[in-house]
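Phosphoribulokinase/uridine kinase domain-containing protein (Babjeviella inositovora NRRL Y-12698), 288 aa
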Amino acid sequence: MSTIDASLSFLTPIIDDHDFDEKSPLVVGVTGLQGSGKSYLSSKLTTELSTRYPDLNVINISMDDFYLTHADQLKVNAAFPDNPLLQGRGLPGTHDLQLATQIFSDLRTSTDRATVRVPIYDKSKFGGEGDRLSEDQWQVVSSPVDIVIFEGWFNGFQNITQAEVQEKYRGSEFFHSHPEISTRTLDTVNDNLVAYQQFWKMFDCFVLLYSPDLQTVYQWRIQQEHELISTKGRGMSDEEVYKFVNRYMPCYILYYESLHQLGCVATAKRNLNLLLGPSRNVLRSSLV
């Protein structure tokens, strides 16, 4: 079974049971390791659900589109010069949460025939450092919105205590081989994560693309870059992929397994875990 088929089987009864006339939009959180296919899944779900439910307005939003502007990210770089995890976009603390809050509020409350502009982030700007596009280039969404597919690589991650950060730090070979990352730098990111958890509370259900072996993320991302080079003539080298993924690995080590075990949404059986094999095939599905 594909991730799309498994997700549709999970979502269909939830959608059928949702009162779209009386309730806010149904928000579906999606996450997975870098290269696991979460963006592909989110896009395909949007298309498939729009076909199955032609009377419903289904949209796809990525947390990536709420990255800080290039100018504001430079301010973060300057404010945390000794924290490699915050040098550039990606981790908690590098998003415009005020903008994200406003957009979600607009999507949940807009009346018929209103429109909402959703930001678009162009990762190719400034030599790959990225920047938000001007507002006239944003995605225009018609209201009312019925289903929001919201994907992001750390969706659902919950901050932990400082003692837990230290315990995971001491127990991980990754941190032993990357001395530039300290518990102090991790504490900053862990503290930043708290502000994001308001968005997780909006999720009505959640899909996690799961691999028990975190090393898989390197293999998947390298494969993606090789495909990019083959089709578009450009992409990261294997060495660049390792450097890129290394910035994300600390969060996977701190939060990923807890998300798998506990889920994100408090309602029972509203969290779908899809165990993926090396080729991203679904080996097993389970509900939390």
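The first strand starts at residue 26 and ends at 32. The radius of gyration is 19 Å. ok done for today
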